[in-house]
Design brief:
150 residues, 9 helices, globular
Length: 150
C-alpha cells in the first residue's frame, strides 16, 4: 500500500525532495505524503476508497501524525467515511499531541462544540492557543472571536 501511495506521490511531484533529503526517515516522509495525497485527491479513480482508507489507517496506527490528522479531519467532516465525532477526537488528539498544528485547531473545535467529547471551553482555548502560537490563522481567529486576544 505504502509503495503504491509513494509511487503516485512521486509521480505527481509531492514526495521527491523530502525523501531525497533524509533517507533514514523516508518511510515516515512517504507515509505523510501518502496521507496528504489521499486527502487532496479525495479518493479519485486511481485508488479504491476502501484501500485508501486502509492505507491511511495503517500509517496512523504506526504513529504518523499527518495520517492521524487526515483521518481525524475525515471523520470530523464525514468526508470519505461516515461522520464519527468520537473517532475524530481519537485521531485528532493523537496528532495534536505530536504537535500537528491543524489537528490542534480541529481538536479545539471539537471541545468548543462538544462533538465527540464533553464540551470544555478551557480545553478548546488551550488547543487553539497551541495552534495560534505557531501562527495558525483560524486558531487566532477563534481566540479573537471569544475575546481572548485582540
Amino acid at each position: 500500500m505504502r509503495e503504491v501511495g509513494l509511487a503516485l506521490a512521486i509521480s505527481v511531484g509531492v514526495a521527491g525532495p523530502a525523501l531525497a533529503q533524509n533517507a533514514a526517515t523516508s518511510g515516515q516522509a512517504a507515509e505523510a505524503r501518502f496521507a496528504q495525497k489521499i486527502e487532496m485527491m479525495y479518493f479519485s479513480a486511481v485508488w479504491g476508497m476502501d484501500e485508501s482508507i486502509a492505507g491511511l489507517r495503517k500509517a496512523a496506527e504506526r504513529g504518523n501524525a499527518e495520517a492521524q490528522r487526515a483521518l481525524g479531519s475525515m471523520y470530523m467532516n464525514g468526508r470519505g467515511v461516515a461522520r464519527d465525532d468520537e473517532l475524530a477526537v481519537v485521531w485528532l488528539r493523537q496528532a495534536a499531541e505530536q504537535g500537528t498544528i491543524p489537528a490542534q485547531y480541529y481538536l479545539g473545535l471539537m471541545y468548543a462544540n462538544g462533538r465527540g467529547i464533553a464540551r470544555d471551553d478551557a480545553m478548546a482555548v488551550m488547543w487553539w492557543q497551541k495552534a495560534a502560537e505557531k501562527g495558525h490563522a483560524e486558531a487566532l481567529q477563534a481566540l479573537r472571536k471569544w475575546d481572548l486576544i485582540k
